[in-house]
Amino acid sequence: MSAAVAAASCTPDPVRIPFDQSGEMVALSGGSAGPRAACHTCHGLDGGGDGARAPRLAALDPGYLVRQLDFFADGQRSHPQMSWLAKRLGSDERMAVSLHYAQMAMPQVGRIDPAISCTQSDAERLYHEGDPARGLQACASCHGAEGSDSDSGAPSLAGQSGAYLSEQLRRWRSGERYGDPLGQMRQAARALQEEEISPLADYIARGQARSRRPESPAGCP
Q1: 168 and 198 assigned to the same domain
Q2: H, E, C per residue of 148-170
Q3: How many angstroms separate the Cα of 113 from the Cα of each of 59, 174, 207, 217?
């Protein structure tokens, strides 16, 4: 055996520390983007968002999450913090952090207000039935009757805040946000009236979209 071969055979394999390259580390440290990009500072340690404009990431489809990071990186979506950090994360880091959040449990969604659930509102009708007269497709046809992921590949809406959902609907409506393959979100948002956006977003955020016919609380017909 030559000296070179002997030396090579004695060289230990490099030690890999999975945590160093995990999505959890990216979420907690910001990865290549640095500490100011740590995801948990806005989206929470449980991935549930901040209850306002930072959305829930936990339990969303990993492909959807990766696609949104790519959109922020290449300019198809615009947000000062998200665009900045997405450009600094490598493709492996984007995939890892997306898988990390996708594997997290869905945070508990707040209970439905019984007083509100007694009312069959216009927002409920729009969510479950849409408005064929103006070409407005029902939200439930893509996002499911419970506001969760469906076979269509649309992202889960359950557990997102009304403020975040309102902002995104307005971005779709104005054309600031785009990129859905069939243009369905842009078409639906443009069919909404301005005064319908906040009530619809609040309806979804309160969890009413999770059940078309919830069990009637005491005092409801």
Answers
A1: yes
A2: CCCCCCCCCCCCCCHHHHHHHHH
A3: 24, 32, 9, 10
Q: What pTM does this model have?
A: 0.75
Is residue 10 domain-resident?
Answer: no
Helix pair angle (62-74, 91-102), 10° resolution: 140
Residue 210: its H or E element: none
CA dihedral 42, 200, 172, 98 (to 10 degrees): 40
- Specify if 108 maps to a domain: no
Give the domain CATH number at 77.
1.10.760.10
Sign of the C-alpha dihedral, residues 125, 127, 131, 134? positive
Number of domains in the chain: 2
Question: Where does residue 10 rank: exposed (0-12), middle (13-18), buried (19+ CB within 10 A)?
Answer: exposed
What digits encode the pLDDT tens for the residues 110-136?
444 444 443 447 999 999 999 999 999
